[in-house]
Fold this sequence. Notes:
Elements: E1 5-11, E2 15-22, E3 25-33, H1 36-40, H2 45-62, E4 72-75, E5 87-89, H3 92-99, H4 112-123, E6 126-130, H5 158-171, E7 180-186, E8 190-196, E9 199-203, H6 223-230, H7 235-239, H8 247-252, H9 257-265, H10 269-292, E10 299-304, H11 310-320, E11 326-330, H12 334-346
Parallel strand pairs: 1-4, 4-6, 7-10, 10-11
Antiparallel strand pairs: 1-2, 2-3, 5-6, 7-8, 8-9
Helix pairs in contact: 3-4, 5-12, 9-10, 10-11
Amino acid sequence: xxxxxxxxxxxxxxxxxxxxxxxxxxxxxxxxxxxxxxxxxxxxxxxxxxxxxxxxxxxxxxxxxxxxxxxxxxxxxxxxxxxxxxxxxxxxxxxxxxxxxxxxxxxxxxxxxxxxxxxxxxxxxxxxxxxxxxxxxxxxxxxxxxxxxxxxxxxxxxxxxxxxxxxxxxxxxxxxxxxxxxxxxxxxxxxxxxxxxxxxxxxxxxxxxxxxxxxxxxxxxxxxxxxxxxxxxxxxxxxxxxxxxxxxxxxxxxxxxxxxxxxxxxxxxxxxxxxxxxxxxxxxxxxxxxxxxxxxxxxxxxxxxxxxxxxxxxxxxxxxxxxxxxxxxxxxxxxxxxxxxxxxxxxxxxxxxxxxxxxxxxxxxxxx
Length: 368
């Protein structure tokens, strides 16, 4: 079986993660720091592109990393309209929609496709995005709400969720498409999702405020309570509770789970209650996803940085292990997931997909 040389790029707020893979082996990785003062000078994400690429090139040169012979470049996707999961060719439409955040969610990950495409063109390689945050495979029953014309959609850690499921299925000697899982990513943001035979058929919109409380996210709150909270506040400020200033930050000004658990261990009852409430809410969400799968669950999979915490894993097992075996995959596989997606396409295991530029769900044709 041929091995492929793949370069992966994952832009963050003040840094860009990069990695070079030779087959499944990661031969180089780094977190390229960008000067926050320089980034502040740029008015748009697109304006940052040349600076970020030059910083990456400088570090590669400094560390004598040669990208000659590259087969594929993969950029972390973002800003795209809802689509099926898979590996997508980075074409002009992907570039246009990602760099301008067509879906309205402006995040540095939107730069991933542009950076990947430029490196791919430079080295004669293919350019892809793999399972971007905009993956939406919801079943019809997960779409409806109690407000006519308002439909549910999801924003999840699709890349890491799917890779965790793919790896666990392989460990079971099966294919992802043969299994049913409840998969969680538990980090700064928390995703809980139901995977049925290779499709992520339900989950919580963590950008919209659904799901459990997280270090920086408020999680689900009753609509009436939110409306009351909004009475003397700007909508923009309230929206930030969904992704930036909610959760631990709103309660105690703490975004680091390690710091919160240390406070709890030192006897801070407020910190202890927040920590246990978050775990309780994660468990409730896991239970709801198990119901979506009608109890046919081959495993509950926990990924993300907070899964290194043994107390969190133990408590979730106490709540949920009666549903199905719980397996912990601490950390994340985002760089590996991007490389694996490219390799599956290059090896002919999967077909590359083409981004249509249209939302996967356009409403129900029988509802006028």
